[in-house]
Design goal:
about 20% strand; alpha/beta; 5-stranded mixed beta sheet; D-Maltodextrin-Binding Protein, domain 2; globular; 11 helices; 3-stranded parallel beta sheet
Amino acid sequence: MKYASFSSSAFASAVLVALAALTLAMPAGAATPAAAPVPTGPVLDRIRQTGKILIAHRESSLPFSYLDADKKPVGYAVDLCLKLAEAVRKRLEIKTIAPEYVLVTAGNRIQMVVDGKADLECGSTTNNAERRQKVAFTIPHYITGARYMVLADSPIAELPMFEGKKLVSTKGTTPLKEVDRANRERLLRITILEAPEHAKAMQMVLAGEADGFVMDDVLLYGLISSSADPGKLKVVGKFLTIEPLAIMMRKDDPEFKKICDEEMKRLILSREAYAIYDHWFNKPIPPKNLPLNLPMNYLLRDFWKYPSDQVPG
């Protein structure tokens, strides 16, 4: 078979002719790409008008979102939200953006976002199918599972050992729903109690009002480390659930979500998110300036290799 051959000079001439023809075919001004239009949407429009972004935070979801000794919102998720806020400022081309903090609970956090009273919910909220019917989530910033906090001298080691006993969880959380389901399906006769916040649930265990507290294990470790006497409590049991935790936002502003997704992906792929993680999980943090000493688990490490807002369940 014969192949057509071109000299290097002939090939170069052909390329130049093609480029010239393409240039002539372009309308005037098309050679320089136009700047991307400033995005719009319900959340973005209000931020542009007011210069404020509403950041929802928790009271005691250490180390994700909690109040320090000066009652200032701090934490791993709060720091990530501030990065997202700065990305929004740049994309909207406004000079400043002021975070306005809004305290939420496990029970009202979803409705606060739905009602537009919070733009970003920066806490320890699980991204699941039921919640995605009402709200949207960006890329997970932590993957954990529900386990049990008990007194240090408690013989309880797994869920069946709570049979006939009292187990507390925080109102409006996935672990509460899952332990209630497991209790009914396995006929364990556990009395399920609800607490308004994580700190209250821990106090119920310490006071003997509950035999255990079921919640994401990372939150349990955080609560124990910040308690008056960490030696009085321990975390036991296998994972009852797997929880991908993510920043929550409204469903009706896809452009806002796009900015947040792109910034989360940038933070992860640039490894800036790893440094933020290390600060909150492996370095001394308020209120006691002690480290949690929780290296990144394999679930999050593997998920961040290909960061996405798509999660199972």
